């Protein structure tokens, strides 16, 4: 608090400010280019205000007065640093923009009911934020900052309202970024489709921030072209008959608006005097505009259509496919081969359906909606109804109804390899015999009733005499017979039980007899083996 008394005589700037721009001319600015200071009484005394008492390192309280700084027409100005002199009647000129945080402080509406208290709070906040920007304590020492923070956090403390207002301004300034006016048209993903005799664009999003009086216009467009407002911007509609076959139309969509650029400025007189922050924010009106060039080509394009299985690894031949336009008229019907089908289409919306399924596959009941724009890009409508860009239109076929068999350990539930299983139809005819592995086994079957039994058990497991009866419905549902009822299942499960291990008792008379008997058997077995070898 050693500089408290110096505040009565010297109040402003020398420290470097973080500028957002520097210049000497300011077109259409709402701030004056120059002003003259005042606030001396009889040219000898400063007018000061004081709303807190600070405490030094020894606990002694001091008044913390601040000189009221104004222009000759009564506008408040604020000191940015404390190592120069403030004086009456000094002419200042606009110098440069300062950090955006000062815009936040200046625009804050404190509503204390006392304009000098408002000035006092903002001046403390300006000094505190200036120290924050420069990373030092040149304006407010550590003791005063601690005082402000402590009393801001304790509602019942002395000068809580003033201290809290200062800290709130500081925190707000640290987070603030002055949002200048913006006006932009989206440039990516704009396409056209033919709808009701018009080339209709996708939505052209307009980014408009802090602007007013938005206007759209067109350049080099034929008669009948429309600009229609949408949720986030506009849509452009161009008559189809205005673009001759084989020709292209290139035109521009223009947008303009009135914007405002916000900035805070400091003013300068000479190295002798403090730099002053003008007490109002500059809101310079400016005209904003943007343009988007687009091209429509009245030409046909090749679209690739693929018929694949569920893995999409190969083309599936033998499917009869039909493409229709948006009016339901058949454009082309063909039978798929082992190669991707290519067809030539005009820009527009289409559907792809399957009328006959390939052998071994289910008939696909999916209708694929796709769109070809005027640039040749292909889009497929997804589950949410949005069109997504694709390289080709793909229709997937699933195999005919199939079942999955899981061969599992009855205790652990793990897959069991090596079991030979047999599937038979309702008449007892063998349909398929297979050996289990460490994964589930899938097989395509026709609708009907079947049985699953074990032919040979895997090593270490008992042969199961169980017969599982299951049913495959026309819609692909698998049901297993449990008691007298069929129950829906995801797959048919067949369990194996391990062969129990013989445990030798560790002690007692019986154990000794078993061991002796075992040794006798081993000796006899060895003799038999030896004899057999000699006879060979």
Written account of the structure:
- With about 525 residues, the protein is an alpha+beta fold.
- The chain folds into five domains: about 5-175, no CATH class; about 180-265 and about 285-295, Sandwich (Immunoglobulin-like), CATH 2.60.40; about 300-395, Immunoglobulins (Immunoglobulin-like), CATH 2.60.40.10; about 400-495, Immunoglobulin-like, CATH 2.60.40.10; about 510-535.
Main features:
536 residues, Immunoglobulin-like, 15% helix, 39 strands, 6-stranded antiparallel beta sheet, 5 domains, elongated, alpha+beta, disordered C terminus
- Per DSSP E runs of 2 or more residues, the count of β-strands stands at 39
The domain count comes to 5
User: How helical, in percent, are the residues?
Assistant: 10-25%
| Structure annotation, total helices | 5
What is the molecular shape?
elongated
Radius of gyration: 44 Å
**Major beta sheet summary:** 6 strands, antiparallel
Mean pLDDT: 84
Strand content: 35-45%
Uncertain parts: 1-27, 511-536
Précis, in short:
With 536 residues, the protein is of the alpha+beta class.
Which secondary structure elements does this structure contain, and how are they paired or packed?
Blueprint: E1 34-38, E2 40-41, E3 45-46, E4 48-49, E5 53-55, E6 61-63, E7 66-67, E8 70-71, E9 77-79, E10 91-97, H1 101-107, H2 115-134, H3 142-153, H4 160-175, E11 182-185, E12 192-195, E13 198-201, E14 204-209, E15 211-219, E16 226-229, E17 233-239, E18 248-263, E19 265-268, E20 276-278, E21 282-297, E22 301-309, E23 320-325, E24 330-335, E25 341-345, E26 348-356, E27 368-372, E28 378-381, E29 387-390, E30 393-397, E31 402-409, E32 420-425, E33 430-435, E34 441-444, E35 448-456, E36 467-472, E37 478-482, E38 485-489, E39 492-496, H5 509-535
Parallel strand pairs: 22-30, 31-39
Antiparallel strand pairs: 1-8, 1-10, 2-3, 4-7, 5-6, 9-20, 10-19, 11-14, 12-13, 13-17, 14-17, 15-18, 16-17, 18-21, 19-20, 22-25, 23-24, 23-26, 26-27, 27-28, 28-29, 31-34, 32-33, 32-35, 35-36, 36-37, 37-38
